Amino acid sequence: MESVMSEQEQFNQELCGFLSQAVTPFHAVAEMAEQLRSAGYSQLVEDESWTLEAGGRYFVTRNGSSIIAFGLGRESGPAEGLRMVGAHTDSPCLMVKPAPEIVRQGYLQLGVEVYGGALLNPWFDRDLSIAGRVSYQCSQGQLRTALIDFREPVAVIPSLAIHLDREANSSRSVNPQKDIPPLLCQLPENEKADFRALLRERLLEEHADCGVDKVLDYELCCYDTQAPAVVGLRREFIASARLDNLLSCYSALRGLQDWDGAASVLLVCNDHEEVGSRSAAGANGPFLASVLKRIAVERETYAALTERSMMISADNAHGIHPNFADRHDENHGPRLNGGPVLKVNANQRYASNSETTGLLRMLAEKAGVPLQSFVARTDMGCGSTIGPITAGEVGVKTLDIGVPTFAMHSIRELAGSADATNLARLLTHFYNLRGSLGAS
Predict the structure, then answer these.
(1) I need a surface site. Which of 23, 260, 295, 345 has the fewest CB within 10 A?
(2) Are 216 and 105 members of one domain?
(3) Which CATH number is 357's domain given?
(4) What is the pTM of this model?
């Protein structure tokens, strides 16, 4: 007899399915939009007028790579405060350059640019594919865009054999201009390299009725085709690309799907966090504030809304690595499967303060979710998130939290198989929290 799949196993299976589809920020937003539609959320368009109703569920996208979903509570309207969660859709990767064709020694290679703070060594000897957004001119002369995903392995970055670099294990470094152009194929001498022609063929394969006349430009990246998996002798871990930060996006999305409709809620997933968030679609841009002002309508309502709201910035945390435990503060080394991590930094690299973390500790206890804490070593630098940016741009109370992770910014990261479920459970309780979000 087949055993009934546990809640955690079911969640992780669905998380892995999401990660497989969300190979770029564009694909992540498309998948999230589809799931929101299935959960009863209606899509809004930024350049059209909005009619919002109590109890309504809505979402809006910007640039196809950022998304905001929100629900207006039946019992508590937005002026009473929004339960907000923020995450980001982008991950460090290799982006294809505008003129990418490199032909050397009879091989066609692809010129790429490093996006964000990628850990480069793990990109070697992986089966890579290509995906993203393509802008093209259709047969009627109009500008259109479409998503593409080659899905199959079409590229690889071969390592240099140790016989040709005897110091590889002790001193090899990666030159991102010279060492990482992926290998696409062998090219006969009489064949001209034309990447845009290749994209046109792919567009016609994926979108037969697109009427593409000419590929104009694109935003494409390479990604690892190895599927996400639950791994470990006792299946304790999730291994995948883009866990930072699609794991948070999915956990927050699941919480939104389980919203009870009482209080007002919002989820924002921004693009461009890994490169500073300063863009029209990034957290350091106007997207969130613009949506909040349209929800509030009146200036006084907007002021009350931001003062009474609270945001949880959900972004992965550094788990304490057993081989490098000295890289952590001895009292703040989060363990995988030990629960979500409250991230604190006195210099405001994280937005947490005692009021916001205190509220979350109370909520976690009610939800039965364990919490851990992370503070960087005092003699080491500290990363940041959309939390301080959002707090500074919008003025909303904020805290930073995340699932502990190994190999952050690698092509394949590792998280605990219990932690994503616990994060989703905690965020669901936050969305459904009644009463004030501040200290009395």
Answers:
(1) 260
(2) yes
(3) 3.40.630.10
(4) 0.95
